[in-house]
Amino acid sequence: MLQGAIDRLGGNLRFAVGLRGFLRAETGVQQARARIASQLASREDSFLDLAEKAIYQNPRSPYRRLLAHAGVELADLAAMVRGRGLEAALEELYGRGVYITFEELRGRRPVKRGSLEFEVKVSDFDNPLLSAFFQSRSSGSRSAGTRVFIDLRTLQREAEYVACLFDAHGILGSRPLAVWQRRPPHSGGLNGLIRFAKIGWPAERWFAQNPFHLAHGGWRGAAFLAYSVLVSYLAGKPFPWPKTVSGDQALRIARWMGEKKREGRPAVLDTGVSGATRVCIAARDNGIDIAGSVFRVGGEPLTPQRARAMVSVGASFLSRYQMVETGIISISCADPVEIDDMHVVSERFAVLTRDKAVGPAGESVPALVYTSLQPDCRMILLNAESGDYGRLFRRECRCSLGGLGYSLHVAGVHGYDKLTSEGVTFMGSELYRLVDEVLPGKFGGDPTDYQLVEEDEEGIPRVSLVISPRVGGIDEKAAVGVALSELRRHFAGPIMAAEWARAGTLRVVRREPYASGGRKVLPLHVIGQAQAAHQAKGGGPAARP
Question: What is the span of the domain harbouring residue 509?
């Protein structure tokens, strides 16, 4: 505990010293493009250098033990990479047991490869070459959130990606900008403000998804935020103070964007997919013109229905794929062939797909597997699963990002979320189809009005079909029937669907869908036993939209 406090103090001091100068030195597009081109040309050398310093010379590294178990010394690794190419070498390493599953990366399960078995924790995957400036937490879509250390060098690189992204789409610095992200101790909002200020495009507004509080260490986040805002003013790149706007208050943001539209300057909003969808629905339902606005979205799958909600009000969107643990992984193509067609930042990560079994009948998905290539990556990843799957493909496109050499694209990214009840597993992509297409198509409403919620009742899994009161009066029995029919058609089979119906496993609850820690409205929300017990004692729902 004492060491942790010392580390936090040291990081805060480094941040205090470094932030002002960091913000004053703007990053330009040409500087970013030159750096990317140089690192793309030397990615194999960079990987081997990182492997030597962060793995082979790091006694704590789990990868060091895996490589030793596979009989791969540094010289062997170099020969594999030089002789076969980086991706081919990584494929071979994976086949020899050098990989980390999503559960292992989260420290939830020990690493087991044949006779080798050892425990791991999240901090074992920290990059030992970084000096942490501040500690953050991930949004917790799948869990309570993972603590992550942030280095200003990583924010420098990510600011460069943001500059290249908006330049490719022709809107860099030309619009009023706002973020609808969380305030500290979570990183989304502050990281976004730092990146935008770094490229000379400071945000006008910060709409904070989480409320201000001092309890449970919240005072540290508040103090850190206050200092950051002060330094931003001293650096001449002032950050806006966050104003709390919860998920069900999207109308406030729609009105602000409507004002900008009336001024002839349609705004850019950086937020999650659910947030953008909510703003567009609020604008539509209240007759607010936000045509020409742009949403930079991520954090959740960009489904056709959610994309349609944005396009229907005359807005456009730029998709991104990033995690707090990795930073930016891919950025939106300006010459797309799919709605979420993104360029992988290939000088920073090597990406493979491996078949991942996810269902009782042998269903599998192409799980995305990552390897860090640069010394300023937040975590050291070597064939590490992210918990997501998607389609990787190579193609030449006509946008400036393709001109940089980013030929590897990714699309259709989903988490392989599991809804497991009565022995049946359903995949995230099909859950999105159910809540985004099928149910709104039958009963009305929008994609954020429906959700499946799984919880434990005395050890028995129960699944609720949550339907927002905004949908109005519906036949609940018919809604259950439609949901069961859709799930049966894709996974469960008639016998299991009949068992669900007989056991009353699926029921309707009229309330607003739950939001995750990152304020995302996902198709599946899981309430654990501890959460359920808290609610049973009058603690209320774990999360509100």
Answer: 419-539
